Each structure stands twice: as structure tokens, then as C-alpha cells.
Amino acid sequence: FDQGSPSSASASAASSSSSQNVQVTYGTVLKLMHEKTKIRLHSHEVPYGSGSGQQSVTGFPNVDDSNSYWVLPLYLACLIFRINFWFNDAMSVSSSDYIWDYALQIVRPPPDTSAKQGDTIPDGAIIRLQHMRTRKWLHSHLHASPISGNLEVSCFGGESESDTGDYWRLLIEGSGKTWKQDQRIRLQHIDTGGYLHSHDKKYARIAGGQQEVCGVREKRADNVWLAAEGVYLPITESK
């Protein structure tokens, strides 16, 4: 993992006013925003009461939610230390505000690829998203989702436990070749073919007021997402 100065990463801590050309690379820590409803992809240590009983995934309406960060790194333990430093230096916030955010996610490639920290992510790439707070993987399978009866989306596994149920194909809308912060994307689950999806149906019990996140096999307006808040690691030159 690059142990260089935080200034280069700080320059890539993208804001809404400077997101047009910001590349999403492996190692990026981000929130995913649902285009239609503006919720952030979220997880927390609350299991589903039906289906798989695995850790639930929802859509959270508050931008400042501390459980909505996901990461795309190759070396998580090192990354946590470095992100703590970068956030404090570049954004003047405490690590507790971000590092243990339940929407923080890590973007990783599958373990059998040659992708490196800082590599750009091309259209069609298979990726994994790791929930920063709980270290579990964004996952799906054939269990029915609690509200709509679509494909359940959960968080499952851990650092040493991952399978193809954690694999998602990145599909960029439009003519983009690599994933950038301002681009509309879909994530299609490899095993089930379902697109990561949300809608305005809300939970009353396990996560009151939060939206259901599920998988659907049809391409719809409700399964488009964008990379939102986060720390966007700079591109690493190939050697």
C-alpha cells in the first residue's frame, strides 16, 4: 500500500463542486447514493427477521449517517490508519465521524485478480464492496427481500470469508470507460443477475423509516446509483 504523503489523497477528497473528473479507484472509501430517492446505501448490526437472517442493508435518508461508508481497498488494516490521518488532515473531522460510519464502504476486486490499490475501475469490472464499520461484504442471494419479495441484499462474511455471492459487475451508464464520481452506474449481482435496487417502500420495524434495498432482475430507473461522499484515492501509475 502506498505510504506516501496524505496531500495527494487530500486533493482527491472530492466535493460536489469538483466531482466531474474524480476517478473511483481501488482503495476509495465512499458512500453510494441512490439516484432517484437520494438515500445512501447503509448497513448496521441488525439482522433480517426473515429470509437469510444475515446483516440487513437499507437506504438511509440522512447524508451525515455514520453507517453508510463502503471501501474498495486491497489492504484494509493499513487503510483504516491512513484514512484516519487523511480525513483529519484534509477535512478537519474526527475519525469517529467517518471511520466507523455505517455507510462507509471499501471497493475491492475479487481475490483472484491482479488489480492493485489505486487502479481505476473499468466498465464491466467485477468488484466487491466492504462495509467499513462491520467489515462484511455487500451480498445477495435467492432469499426474498422482506418488503417487496425481490432478491434479498445483505452484508455477510468478513476479511477471510468471501464467495461469489459478494461479486457485483460495474455497469457504467453512457460512454464512460472507467468509473468516475459523477457517472451513473448500476451494480449487477453475478450469481443472481439482480441489479442493486431501492424504492420508496420503508421499514416500520428493523430500521424504522429506512428504505428497502434489494435486487431486481429488470433494468429500471430505480437501480441507478452514484458515488457520493468519500475519500477518493489518486490513480497509481502501473509499473
How is the topology of this model organized?
Elements: H1 6-11, E1 29-34, E2 40-47, E3 55-60, E4 67-68, E5 70-71, H2 76-91, H3 95-98, E6 102-103, E7 105-108, E8 126-131, E9 137-144, E10 151-156, E11 168-172, E12 185-189, E13 195-202, E14 211-216, E15 225-231
Q: Which labels suit this protein?
A:
239 residues, globular, MIR domain-containing protein, 11% helix, 34% strand, 7-stranded antiparallel β-sheet, Trefoil (Acidic Fibroblast Growth Factor, subunit A), mainly beta, disordered N terminus
The N- and C-terminal alpha carbons lie at a distance of 14 Å
CATH class: Mainly Beta
Helical segment count: 3
Overall strand count: 15
Biggest pleated sheet = 7 strands, antiparallel
